Amino acid sequence: FTNGLQFQTSYTFSRSFDTGQTSTTFTTNNVPFNVFDLSHERARSNFDTPHKFVASAVWTPDFFGSQGDSKVGRAIFHGFTIAPVFYAFSGSPYSGTLSVTGAGGAGQINQSGGSNRIPILERNSFRRPKIVNFDMRVSRRFNLGETRNLEFLVEGFNLFNRTQVTNVTSTMYSANFTTGVLTFNQPFQAVTEAGATLFRERQVQMAVRFEF
């Protein structure tokens, strides 16, 4: 049998650094530890995604050919289009932070506002789990005349229902300034959010489209 197959893939390697600037375009902000000295803030950007891989295909199988002898075969299999999309990329970075209580009352490690990240660790020194996703679209088109087509389609998103981790517990230690006790936070890096606007649990949708 003959097949109409289109396939494309891409891989991107990049590195993004900044000194913790607040973005007016995106909603994610970097709050500096010391607003008067940004030299210690230079590290991975919140938007740093070093590895991105995307592969997609569009397959229109023609099992019996337009001139084939099997009219039944053409009636059953003709008109299908199968379009999978796979992508994988690095998780977003984040900083290890302190939960501060006790003397001073500011609730901040430097007692003057700003970030509560651990100062001996580089900003955004940790990274959330990678995102791996597979989508699929299958459609069947029926020709009803020279200018009319009827198409039935099914689309599946996150088809393997992989847990897409979008946030984790970033609090690494709890510090009490009154007692001088530093306690490791056991839930550090535990998953707190799975799924967002772009990354969700498995979803399937069906549609019918009429072209004329």
Description:
The protein is mainly beta. It has one helix spanning 71-77; strands at 2-13, 17-18, 43-44, 51-62, 80-89, 93-94, 97-101, 126-127, 131-143, 149-157, 165-168, 171-176, 181-184, 191-194, 203-211. The longest helix is centred in the middle third of the chain and has 7 residues, at 71-77. Residues 24-28 have low confidence and may be disordered.
In short:
With about 210 residues, the chain is mostly beta strands.
Give the % helix: under 10%
Give the radius of gyration.
26 Å
What is the beta-strand fraction? over 45%
Count all strands and give the number. 15
The strand line-up of the biggest sheet is 1-4-5-9-10-15
Sketch the topology as an H/E string, one letter per element.
EEEEHEEEEEEEEEEE
Distance between the termini: 30 Å
Instruction: Characterize the main sheet.
Output: 6 strands, antiparallel
Low-confidence stretches: 24-28
Class by SSE composition: mainly beta
Our count of helices gives 1
Mean pLDDT: 83
Q: Tell me, what's the shape?
A: elongated
Protein traits:
single chain; mainly beta; six-stranded antiparallel sheet; 212 residues; elongated; three-stranded mixed sheet
Which helices and strands occur, and which strands form pairs?
Layout: E1 2-13, E2 17-18, E3 43-44, E4 51-62, H1 71-77, E5 80-89, E6 93-94, E7 97-101, E8 126-127, E9 131-143, E10 149-157, E11 165-168, E12 171-176, E13 181-184, E14 191-194, E15 203-211
Parallel strand pairs: 7-12
Antiparallel strand pairs: 1-4, 2-3, 4-5, 5-9, 6-8, 9-10, 10-15, 11-14, 12-13
